[in-house]
Design a protein that fits this description.
single chain, mainly alpha, two-stranded parallel sheet, globular
C-alpha cells in the first residue's frame, strides 16, 4: 500500500487496505490472510501467537506458529520470484 512511511506499523497499513474495509470483496468463505504476531487476529487475518515476556508458549501454540511460518516462507519465496521477474536479476550475480 503506497503512501505510508517506512516507519508505519504493518498493522496500521493493513487496516487502511480494502482487505479490512471490505473483506467480502476479496475473500471467499474459508479464505484469509496470514501474518506474524504484529497483526491483530480477525475473521480474515490469522496471525501467529505472541510470546509474552517472561512466559513460554504452550506446545500447541508453538506448533501452530511453526506451521504458519512454513507457509509464510513459501509466500516470501514466491514474492521474491515475482520481484526477480518484474525487476530483473542483477547481472553481477
Amino acid at each position: 500500500m503506497a503512501g505510508y512511511p517506512g516507519c508505519a506499523h504493518d498493522n496500521q497499513v493493513y487496516h487502511a487496505t480494502g482487505f479490512v474495509k471490505g473483506p467480502h470483496d476479496y475473500f471467499a468463505e474459508m479464505e484469509c490472510n496470514i501474518g506474524d504476531s504484529a497483526f491483530q487476529n480477525s475473521l480474515f487475518m490469522v496471525s501467529s501467537f505472541c510470546k509474552v515476556k517472561g512466559e513460554t508458549l504452550d506446545s500447541n501454540h508453538k506448533s501452530f506458529n511453526t506451521k504458519l511460518a512454513i507457509v509464510k516462507i513459501y509466500s516470501e519465496h514466491c514474492i521474491g520470484i515475482l520481484k526477480d521477474n518484474f525487476l530483473g536479476k542483477d547481472e553481477s550475480e
